[in-house]
Every structure is written in structure tokens, then in C-alpha cells.
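Hi team, as promised in this morning's meeting, here are the two structures we talked about. I've kept the exact order from the run log so nobody has to guess. The first one is mostly here for context; it's the second one we should focus on when we meet again. Sequence first, then the predicted C-alpha cells.
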Amino acid sequence: VAISQSGETADTIASLREARKRGAKVIAISNVVGSTITREADGTIYTHAGPEIGVAATKTLVSQMAAIYTLALYLAQVRGTLSQAEVSKTIHELNEIPEKIATSLQDISPIKKCASEFSNCKSFLFLGRGIGVPVALEGALKLKEISYIHAEGYAAGEMKHGPIALLEKDVPVVVVATKGHTYEKVISNIQEVRARGSFVIAVATEGDSEIKQHAEHVFYVPETSELLSAIPAVIPLQLLAYYIAKIRGCDVDQPRNLAKSVTVE
């Protein structure tokens, strides 16, 4: 599966060609109809997210996630690893997510307040477990891309293998703490972070009152199944990066040194 918003990313195209040369079938996921990656792949899933002017991918990332979920659910249906009822239930839930996110975005004052408080920090750490790991990586990427603040995304279970040495009061830690089978372990990680003086910013599931005892700031996201929780969880981290960048006077649409499409290796 080759994923490229523009369909022109050089290393993705090179990988696609190598895979096909070795006999693999390639599915492309792209936002641009008729792009190189879609012409050369065996099949294509278009995200149809519309033009994205800003260099940093936001809506196209979320639409790519939805496309990947849809592909996975189709394969689960074909292979029989999920029942038809389970597939239908998950697809229905996936269809409900946009409306849930729209409702949760009606009040983003907690994100703006947090951005104002930490906009002068020189470094952030983002932590997650399980499906929260790629969410943490995306949060760190967006912050460094558009606000020029050093940020590192890490699997929370690996925190003691290095990142814990960076913890101090001037290094806020953003933790993906949505409900799921790793929740209690995430809370344990948060306690370790706070014991070392760092402030905690948590992304949590609506209705979770316990998390307020463990974090200085909480961004609540709509409740979904654990499988789909990455989609709503990533939105407040994109907004946090946006508002921090705005406060710092950065150009959020055209960050320095970055291009929308990386067409050279």
C-alpha cells in the first residue's frame, strides 16, 4: 500500500516501482486524481479531501486514516477475520466520526489556553501506547513543522529507555490517554512524568473524570471504539500546533524549509 497525498512523492514512487518489479500488487492511497502514484499502481483509493493549501498535512492525513481503516475492514470481510456484523458496526461508527468531531470542536478554548501557556517552551515530548503511538508521532511532527519547537514522539512503554532523562518542568509532555486496554499503563506513565516535574497535557475520552487528577490540561475527544480512536485523538494535537505557531508568529501555511510535495530523493 503506497500512501502519498500528492501522488508525486519521490521515495514512495521509487518504492512502488521496486515492489511491482518484484511481482507485488500495489494499492495507492492518494488525494490527487491522475497523479503518478495512481497511474502506476494496480488499484487506487482516492481520499477526495479537496485541495490542501497548507504544507503540513491535516485533513489529508485524517482522510488517509479513514481510507486505511476502510481498506482494512474490507480485507477483514473478505478473509472472514471479522463477522459481517462487526464490519458493519465499525463502518457505521466510522461514518459517525465527522459529526462527533464537529461537535467537539465547538469549544476549543482549552486548546487555545494551553497553547498560550506553553508557546515559549523549547521542547515537547509526546507519548502514547498501542494505537496512541502514531497519534503521538503525528502530534510531535505537526508541532515541529509549523511552530519550530523541538518535539519528539515516543512509545510510552519505551520512556525509560532515554526520553525520561529529558523530563523537567520546562518540558511539557503530551500524552494520548484515550480509553482502551493500555489506559492504566498510560496513567502509570503520566505519574512517572509528573513525579519528575513535567506538566502533562492529556488527550482523553469524553466522560473520563479520572484523567483530571493526573494532568494539568485535558483535551477531550468523542468516545469511539479503541480501534478508531486515533482519528478523533489526532485533531486536538493538530490544533495545538496551529495555535502555538500563531502565537509565535509563524507562517502555518508555508513553514520554512518545507515543500508540499517532496519530489526528489
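And here is the second protein, the one for discussion:
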Amino acid sequence: MHKPYAGIAALLLALGGVSAASAAGLELRLEPASAKEFGSGKIVYSLSNTGTSTLHVLRWMTPLDGVSNNLFRVSQDGRAVAYTGRLVKRAAPTESDYLPLAPGQSISAEVDLTAYYDMRKGGQFGVTYNRDARQVVREAAEAARGGAAAAVLDFDMAQRGGVEVFADAAIDAFEEFAPKASTGVLAPTNTFVGCSTTRKNQIATARNSAVGYASNSANYLTANNTGSRYTWWFGSYNSTRYGTVRNQFNTIHSALSTQPFTFDCNCNSPGVYAYVNPNQPYTVTLCNAFWSAANTGTDSRAGTLVHEVSHFNVVAGTDDYAYGQADAHALALSSPSQAIHNADSHEYFAENTPPRN
């Protein structure tokens, strides 16, 4: 019997007089693929609008167009399995990034988890969804930003047991997955793939500025400042969370200022700044939005490098829970524990535009 992942998620949206009785409902399921796919590590992800109002789903927070960030929690014997896919920095979502989901409509996608998670040793794996309603559904995010967060119920927490899936062992099951980052201080060199001379110079300038951003951030945190610059992006002060962010920026600064990087310019994706594979330091692929950005300032080239470097597991291992300043700030208010692991939050703290104390 297929086990539903999230039952009915009652999103009680405080939208201009809409009562709880007429609020939208959203059913989310994770199910194993068909029996003939047993051992493939594949699941089927589906969303169904069980309410009476159209909802808008942020496509790249779902696997509908493939997996471009850490959308699932995959574990084996109680231990998390490493995400090995891309982590992509995008511009803040626009209307075209949302998929309307009409009442009674369902959408689904088959996901081969073995393509994105290190499941090479095979066996039984537990899978849950790694996003909440505010990150997936526009109406939930808008209600939260409007101060109605308490009226928004997330996907049914009682059903977060998720789904069990079996994966066969891969031929490379006992090989090292990827080279580890070198230890010690190395030359901060830049290697380029498919980059013009102009772009090489822009990258070098951006990296130098990123080192400055990371240094300034680390110094701010080392001095134990707890002003609005910190709380705006990472939420209320807590000594443990604060210490985590301080350590992250020390490591980000160290990586940017000492490690050899490879920059790949062979990406033409619109609306995408850059992406990395978190287990492959220090290679960064740069895309269209990176080249149209300013060197410094909000969503800058230098800030993008801080964002991407923070993703590497040997650096800070951040995720992409929220994109854009508005959603990153909302995340700090609603979930500081996620904000301190959100790459855009680190970027905006480093860019500090507009400046905060």
C-alpha cells in the first residue's frame, strides 16, 4: 500500500475576509514508483488542490522541472544521505515562475533520487519533503509576510514519516564520491572554462570583492555585534545560532582567500546567477544573471560568489530555502534555524545593502 506523505495540508490563508471554512486545501504525496521500478530509487511526487481557490506553486521548489536544490530529506538507518545535485542561485521569483493549480487539479513528477543523493551503497531509504508551504505556495508566503503566519498551517506534520524506497547498489558503491577539498593554505588561483577575457577579468574582480565582503562579515561577527544587520537576515539573537553564523563566515572567508577555484562560463540559463555541486569544491558555474549584475551591491557578482561558496559542504553546507531579500527576511522572522543555513541570507548579510548596523 502506498503511504501518503502529507495527507491534507490545510493552508488557512488570511486573505481579505476569506474564512477558514473556505480556505484552500493542498494534498501532497510521496509514493514509490511502480512495482516494476523496484530497486530504482524512484519516487512519484504529486500535489493536488483539494480546495476551492486557485493556488500558485513555485516550480523550482518542486521537482516538476527536475531537481535544482535539496528538495528532499533522504536517510538510511537514521543517518542523512548527502545531496549531490546542483544548488542554484536564482533571482527572486516572478509571476512566470509560478504554476497555477486550479481547484481539483493535480500535478506530479517522477524523481530518480539516485541522480541527486548519494544512495550508491543501496538498501532501504526514508524520504521526506524538505520544504514547507511558505516556500512552495505563493499564497502561504504572502500570508506569512502579512503577519498572518499563525493562520497558515504547514503540510500536515503528523504525516512527515514520508515514504520508504529501495535502491540497488551502484557499481561505484565503494569508491570515493568526489575529491575532498585540500587542507592547508593554497594559492587563491582562478582557473577558467569557456570564459572570454572580459569575463575572466570580471570574475577576478568579483572574487576580490567577495573576499572583502566575507572579511567584513567575519569581523562584524567576531566583534559579537548583534545589531539589525544580524537580526534582519538571521533572526532573533541566540548564542548557538550566532556562533554557527560566525564560524560559517570565517570558513567562507578562508575559502575565498586561500583556495584554488574553477569558474565555468558555459551556462546560458535565464534568471539563474550560478550553481555549484556542494560536494565538488571549488567549482562554480556562472550563468546569465551573473553577467548582468553589478560587481557589488544587492544580488551582485561578489555577493553571488559568497552565496555559492557557502553551499560547499566543506565550507558551510547551506541550502536554498528562500530567494530574494523579501523572502530571506521573512525566513529570518519565521524560522531563524533555517535562515542561518540559507545561502541568500548569507549573501545579503555580506552585501549589507542597504547598510544596517
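Starting points for discussion:
The chain has ten helices and 15 strands.
Confidence is low (pLDDT under 50) at residues 1-24, 148-161, 178-185.
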